[in-house]
Amino acid sequence: MKNIKEKIIEVKNLKKNFKISKRMNGLPGHIANLFKPKYEVKEAVKGIDFEIYEGECVGFIGANGAGKSTTIKMLSGILYPDSGCINVMGFEPHKDRKKYVANIGVVFGQKSQLSWDLPVIDSFELLKNIYKIPSDVYKKNLDEFMELLDMSNFINQPVRQLSLGQRMRADIAASLLHSPKLVFFDEPTIGLDVVAKEKIREFVRYMNKEKKVTFIFTTHDMQDIAKTCERIIIIDKGSKMYDGSVKELVDKYGGSVKLAIEIKDVLVDEEYIKLLKQSLENQFIDCEFTIEDKKNNIVEIMFENKTLSSVQVTTFLAEKFTLKDFRISDIDIEEIVRKIYEGGITL
Amino acid sequence: MKAFMAYLKIAFKSNTIYRVDFLFSIIGTCVNIFIYCAIWKALYGDNISVNSVSYEMVTTNFILSLAMSSVFSTNDFVIQQKLWDGSISTDMVRPIDLRVSILARDLGNIFFKLITHFILSVIISVIFIGMLPPKSFVCLLLYVIGMILGFCVLWALSVIVQMSAFWIINVWSISTIKNVVVNVLSGIMIPLWFLPDTLKNIISFTPFESIYYIPVNIYLGKITGGEIFHAYFKQLLWFAVLFYIGNVMWNKGKRRIFVQGG
Ligand SMILES: Nc1ncnc2c1ncn2[C@@H]1O[C@H](COP(=O)(O)OP(=O)(O)OP(=O)(O)O)[C@@H](O)[C@H]1O
Ligand SMILES: [Mg+2]
Question: Which CATH architecture best describes the domain A255-331?
Answer without folding.
Answer: 2-Layer Sandwich (3.30)
